[in-house]
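Example record used in the benchmark description.
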Amino acid sequence: MSRIKVACVIDDDPLYNFGIKKLFEFTQFSENCLFYKNGQEAIDALTDISLSENFPDVLLVDINMPIMNGWKFLEEYEKRNLKRDVRIYVVSSSINQEEIDRANGYEFVNGYIFKPLTLEKVKELKEQIENS
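Model output (structure tokens):
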């Protein structure tokens, strides 16, 4: 059984989300997975479940999304003082060092992962989380 009970992917790309879902299933990344299309949808839902046992153990947050992007999501997450024992990763295709530094500047962000997520990256991430 996975130590990761619930994983959450916040990304507006349906094809990417489909691929991640398949990778998560193949690697048995988590017992359950939540998908949100933008930061606003995610922050609202996570605020509602913040006190429940179903709060995600891992959040994968895209930067570029409509309505509320990843940066605004992280600001809201911090402002609302949501759970801190969650592993949060910014996932982006951007190789811009300023964005990498900005993501790593949040003390509650655990890392920056370059898209695309591959089978190998998902396996490594799962191992890293389960061994921490």
